[in-house]
Amino acid sequence: MRSSILTGIAAIGLAACGDTSSSTSPMPRASARFETNPVGAAVTGAIFTQTNAVSGNSVVAFSRAVDGSLTYAGTFSTGGNGIGGTNDPLTSQYSLLLDGENDRLLFVVNAGSNSVSVFRVDGAALSLVGTTSSGGSFPVSLAITGHTLYVLNAGSNSIAGFDVTVDGSLTPNPSASAPLGAGASGGAAIRASRDGRFLVATEKGSKSIDVFPIGAHGVLGAPVRSASVGITPFGFDFVNGGELAVSEAGSAATSLYSLSLDGSLGVDAPSVSTNGQAATCWLIATTNGRFVYTANAGSGTISGYAVGAQGSLQLLNAGGVTGSTGAGSTPLDLDLSRGDRFLYVLESGTGRIGSFAVSSDGSLTPLSGIGGLAAQSGFQGLAAY
To answer: CA–CA distance from 257 to each of 163, 173, 228 (Å)?
Structure first.
């Protein structure tokens, strides 16, 4: 009886995060009418999201001013295709990714054409370097460390590795490629540890977390599989040293794990609830590892957690709401700007990029954000600098 109840909860959580419409019958797209905010300071960063359109995927770019305000900067074709849909058809995190060193390259999955596009970044302007086969089917998530890019192909339950050249072009690296662990199902996200020694993958269907050791030149070793302590592990990020925080869509909670040198995971803080929030699917951590934020698609909220030095995880607000994006907003992927001063979130339900100022105590102050995206039309991913 308990097993069937937990299975039902997991299904509800995953449905709230994912798109239940047919990917071959996307909703009509409204003409974009982008709001503009007065910008009184020089542009200091940018925000990127992808249209995921069946007829041709594109990246929509916004420039960021020093006060966190956003201005539409352009739409750039990836040269590949998306799958359409409404809210979160990829059911993944990190479908767009900046290079992590100097934010000069942007990588984007094209799930409909099984490819990955690379752009050179100049402020908020993008120039396409090229589009390459993803090395599998249904690419949904990206990770990078050093000069190696990893692509999670959820359809083929595999990770494909690529060498990234100075100009941003990709060359397949078979030694940096590997299948997910036995019984893999529902790959959601991949991320490299901050020291570049491990690649981690979460799997919604198998309720597992795979850890691959990374060797010289990006070579992947055999994965070490650990069971998720909560239901439907989804988004995640690294925090203090060898710890990672993982959101749980089915549990509406976040767990904290310690990562051992052999790739095994120990549970430091199991399933710390968001206290009534729903569809806790995406997660991002501040650079200093002190704070973690989750996007709760089913309740239109952001939950913040404080990460303690001794492996503790505690909600910043007793009610679980550190920031609100509003009823019907369906917040999906989220990211922090360079320096962790601002938190941005893709509000799929209302076609907006929500924004918050981040205080030193982790609290969030809502900013104006920007609208103009087509609501519930399959937009995916968010990358900020």
So the answer is: 30, 30, 10
- Structural domains in the chain, sorted by start: 2-384 (2.130.10.10)
**Which residue, among 285, 300, 243, 236, has the nearest Cα to 268 in the 3D structure?**
243
Task: Count other C-beta atoms under 10 Å from residue 341's C-beta.
Answer: 16
DSSP 21: S
Q: Element (H or E) spanning 352, and its range?
A: strand 352-358
Sign (positive or negative) of CA dihedral 169, 174, 176, 182: positive
Residue 91, CA atoms < 13 Å, CB-side half-sphere: 28
The amino acid at 97: L
C-alpha 355: how far from chain center: 16
Per-residue pLDDT tens digits of the chain, which is 385 residues long: 434 433 444 444 555 576 534 333 333 333 344 444 444 446 699 999 999 999 999 999 999 999 999 999 999 999 999 999 999 999 999 999 999 778 899 999 999 999 999 999 999 999 999 999 999 999 999 999 999 999 999 999 999 999 999 999 999 999 999 999 999 999 999 999 999 999 999 999 999 999 999 999 999 999 999 999 999 999 999 998 789 999 999 999 999 999 999 999 999 999 999 999 999 999 999 999 999 999 999 999 999 999 998 899 999 999 999 999 999 999 999 999 999 999 999 999 999 999 999 999 999 999 999 999 999 999 999 999 9
Tell me if 9 sits within 8 A of 2, measured CB to CB: no
d(CA 385, CA 380): 17
Q: Residue 364 forms beta bridges with which residues?
A: 358
Give me the residues paired with residue 190 across strands: 201
How far does CA 30 lie from the centroid of its chain? 25
Q: CB-based contacts of 187: which residues, under 8 Å, 6+ apart?
A: 92, 140, 141, 152, 153, 154, 157, 180, 201, 202, 203, 204
CA distance 143 to 278: 27
* Local structure of residue 196 (DSSP, 8 states): S
Round to whole Å and give the CA distance between 332 and 40: 29
Q: What are phi and psi of 8, to 5 degrees?
A: -65, -40
Task: Report how far residue 202's alpha carbon sits from residue 224's, in angstroms, rounded to the nearest whole number.
Answer: 12
154 within 8 A of 138, measured Cβ to Cβ: yes
10 phi, psi to nearest 5 deg: -60, -40
List helix spans (H) across the chain: 2-17
